[in-house]
């Protein structure tokens, strides 16, 4: 909740205390995920239509039909489309990470192992979003090592976050009769396993491409890379089951409170 001096003056106390923004969490979650999803699809499409040769080029100089994500977001105007989408979606992602931490603290008040895992989930979620920002705003064509380490932080923290989240929701499922919580856990588990399998496949095709320089292998790597990112987005989308009845509200504080 934020205090706004702009609403002071001619407005009465009723208007002043009225929420500035009121949005269902479902709309909030969908909008947050749609930003990077739309941005990535747009960048890949633009790269294929206008920068096909440059974006699909590799050092092996063999046939390749899809750009890697780094190549798709590294040129103009793709770079600016991606940076805009990720920049807009990053603040809500940080807020959701804190919301989950508060949710877990309420669920596991007297369970120390789960409380510790809740802290790990928070830190890994923050690291995941920070790694994504790093690889977004430092492209592979500008400073390759910084971009590479940002990508590594993103992937590693993403896997840790999904693993810890699945463990926490396994405990929640054990004591829950809520069908939405049951559905949320099952989809989280499926998406985590799928994401892990795609990460392993992407690593295999990347190493094979660099070792043997076979035609089309880098395309398979790029495809697996897309699936890693799409499944990551889908995993975060399960938040609309976890907070489906909640609302995101931005409002002025009561007149007698100052922050």
How would you briefly describe this protein structure?
The protein has 259 residues and is mostly helical. It has ten helices and two strands, in the order αβαααααααααβ. Helix 8 (179-212) runs antiparallel to helix 9 (217-237).
**Main β-sheet, spatial strand arrangement:** 1-2
β-strand percent reads under 5%
Order of helices and strands: HEHHHHHHHHHE
CA-to-CA gap between the ends? Answer: 10 Å
**How large is the count of helical segments?**
10
Evaluate the radius of gyration: 21 Å
Protein name: Acyltransferase PGAP2
Membrane topology: Multi-pass membrane protein
Transmembrane segments: 20-48, 115-137, 149-169, 189-206, 218-235
Subcellular location: Golgi apparatus membrane
Task: Provide tags for this entry.
single chain; 71% helix; disordered N terminus; two-stranded antiparallel sheet; mainly alpha; 259 residues
Helix and strand arrangement:
Layout: H1 13-17, E1 21-24, H2 25-50, H3 52-55, H4 69-72, H5 78-107, H6 112-137, H7 144-174, H8 179-212, H9 217-237, H10 239-242, E2 247-250
Antiparallel strand pairs: 1-2
Helix pairs in contact: 2-5, 2-9, 5-6, 6-7, 7-8, 8-9
How would you explain this protein's 3D organization?
With 259 residues, this protein is mainly alpha-helical. It has one domain. Helices cover 71% and strands 3% of the residues. It has helices at residues 13-17, 25-50, 52-55, 69-72, 78-107, 112-137, 144-174, 179-212, 217-237, 239-242; strands at residues 21-24, 247-250. A two-stranded antiparallel sheet has the order 1-2. The longest helix is centred in the C-terminal third of the chain and has 34 residues, at 179-212. The model is unreliable at 1-14 (pLDDT under 50). Its main location: Golgi.
């Amino acid at each position: 909740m934020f205090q706004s001096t702009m609403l002071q003056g001619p407005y009465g106390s009723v208007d002043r205390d009225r929420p500035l923004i009121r949005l269902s969490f479902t709309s909030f979650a969908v909008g947050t995920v749609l930003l990077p999803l739309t941005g990535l699809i747009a960048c890949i499409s633009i790269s294929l239509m206008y920068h096909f040769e440059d974006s699909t080029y590799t050092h092996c100089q063999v046939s390749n039909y899809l750009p890697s994500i780094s190549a798709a977001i590294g040129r103009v105007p793709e770079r600016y489309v991606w940076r805009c989408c990720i920049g807009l979606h990053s603040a809500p992602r940080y807020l959701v990470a804190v919301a989950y931490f508060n949710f877990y603290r309420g669920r596991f008040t007297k369970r120390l192992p789960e409380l510790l895992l809740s802290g790990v989930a928070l830190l890994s979620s923050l690291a995941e979003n920070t790694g994504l920002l790093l690889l977004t705003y430092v492209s592979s064509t500008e400073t390759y090592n910084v971009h590479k380490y940002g990508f590594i932080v993103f992937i590693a923290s993403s896997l840790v976050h999904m693993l810890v989240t699945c463990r926490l929701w396994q405990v929640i499922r054990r004591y829950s009769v809520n069908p939405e919580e049951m559905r949320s856990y099952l989809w989280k588990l499926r998406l985590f396993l799928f994401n892990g399998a795609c990460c392993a496949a992407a690593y295999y095709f990347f190493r094979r491409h660099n070792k043997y320089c076979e035609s089309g292998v880098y395309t398979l790597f790029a495809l697996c890379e897309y699936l890693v990112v799409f499944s990551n987005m889908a995993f975060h989308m399960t938040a609309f089951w976890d907070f489906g009845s909640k609302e995101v509200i931005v409002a002025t504080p009561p007149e007698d409170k100052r922050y």
